[in-house]
DNA sequence: CGCCAGGTTAGAG
DNA sequence: CTCTAACATGGC
């Protein structure tokens, strides 16, 4: 299967992101290829993505799935790499910006590699709250290894993110054992319950305005402005989602503004006024600078 | 050892 | 409404 690519796309830039943690279990990078396991109606599908001549090549190492499943995987990959987004307006805006002009030139074609699964996105964001990214990956690794479904193929393991129905049955103690804080454990179980009882779902939020979707997400304990915007950026692809309180944004701007302290939230807002409509992509490129 | 980390909440003022 | 302590542990 082949997926055509927009001109403003560089596979290698996205690959760089996918390779950032050796503790990642939800995909596997081997050379230029990415392997990922997905679940469709209980059926586990392993696929392999690589790139050739401005196309993505998708293979199925275990078995060729039905045409219907193939269409779903194609859609999944388009979402995953944000291929439907036209980045021309963003690059036009960034070209005149003192900070972004250099970054968008240097990392041209880098896109937000997302999380099509809203539940995964929210739980992952909670895991990342207030701790360093490296430790967040340790928590996720243990969580996925312990409670996610697994497929073994050619002596290698491929994992799915744990499902809400499994996580709601976990106790605080189960999660404390894998180094979650009480707070993270409570939030994780709470979010799982919200998914299980239908309080939130990707379908329910689809099509809402950024403000409305954010408001609905933030009703759930553990989801504040940063987490809500993170998910809106990674799952729903709002180009103007803006995780204002992010420590990475703070650090990047501290460098660009040549401050000897962290910038205040108002100073960050002031910089981002220029990026209106493209806050998510401005954030991505600032993160990339770190 | 000390400071900070891809924050959020509850409670005080 | 705004401000702050508590959360908890690893990375550097």
Q: Could you explain the architecture of this structure?
A:
The chain has 290 residues and is an alpha+beta fold. It has three domains: 2-84, TATA-Binding Protein (2-Layer Sandwich); 86-114 and 239-290, Endonuclease Iii, domain 2 (Orthogonal Bundle); 118-150 and 159-234, Hypothetical protein, domain 2 (Endonuclease III, domain 1). The protein is built from 15 helices and seven strands. It has helices at 11-18, 67-80, 88-94, 100-106, 118-128, 133-147, 164-167, 172-177, 182-196, 202-205, 210-217, 225-234, 247-256, 265-272, 279-288, and strands spanning 2-4, 28-30, 33-40, 43-52, 55-59, 150-153, 156-159. The strands form two sheets. A five-stranded antiparallel beta sheet has the order 1-5-4-3-2, covered by helices on one side. Strand 4 and strand 5 (55-59) form a beta hairpin. Helix 5 (118-128) packs antiparallel against helix 9, helix 5 crosses helix 12 (225-234) and helix 11 (210-217) packs across helix 12 (225-234). The longest helix is centred in the middle third of the chain and has 15 residues, at 133-147. The protein is globular. The mean pLDDT is 97. The chain binds a DNA duplex (13 and 12 nucleotides) through residues 125-126, 128-136, 138, 179-184, 187, 221-227, 230, 243, 245-251, 283, 287.
In summary, what is this structure?
The model has no long low-confidence stretch (mean pLDDT 97).
């Amino acid at each position: 299967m082949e997926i055509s690519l927009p001109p403003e796309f560089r596979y290698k830039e996205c690959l760089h992101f996918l390779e950032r943690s050796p503790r990642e279990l939800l995909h596997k990078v081997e050379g230029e290829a990415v392997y990922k396991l997905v679940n469709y109606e209980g059926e586990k599908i392993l696929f392999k993505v690589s790139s050739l001549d401005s196309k993505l090549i998708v293979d199925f190492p275990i078995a060729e799935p039905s045409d219907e499943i193939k269409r779903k995987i194609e859609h999944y990959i388009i979402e995953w790499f944000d291929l439907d987004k036209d980045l021309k307006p963003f690059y036009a805006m960034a070209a005149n910006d003192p900070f972004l002009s250099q970054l968008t030139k240097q990392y041209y074609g880098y896109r937000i590699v997302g999380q099509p699964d809203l539940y995964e996105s929210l739980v992952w964001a909670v895991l990342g709250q207030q701790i360093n990214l490296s430790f967040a990956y340790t928590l996720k690794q243990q969580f996925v290894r312990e409670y996610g479904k697994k497929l073994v193929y050619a002596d290698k393991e491929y994992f799915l993110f744990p499902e809400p129905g499994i996580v709601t049955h976990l106790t605080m103690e189960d999660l404390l054992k894998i180094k979650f804080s009480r707070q993270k454990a409570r939030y994780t179980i709470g979010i799982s319950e919200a998914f299980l009882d239908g309080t939130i779902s990707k379908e329910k939020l689809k099509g809402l305005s950024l403000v409305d979707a954010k408001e609905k997400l933030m009703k759930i304990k553990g989801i504040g402005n940063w987490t809500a915007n993170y998910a809106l950026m990674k799952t729903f692809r709002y180009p103007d989602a803006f995780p204002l309180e992010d420590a990475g944004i703070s650090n990047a701007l501290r460098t660009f503004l040549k401050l000897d302290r962290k910038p205040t939230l108002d100073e960050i807002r002031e910089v981002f006024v220029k990026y209106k409509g493209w806050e998510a992509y401005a954030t991505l490129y600032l993160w990339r600078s770190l």
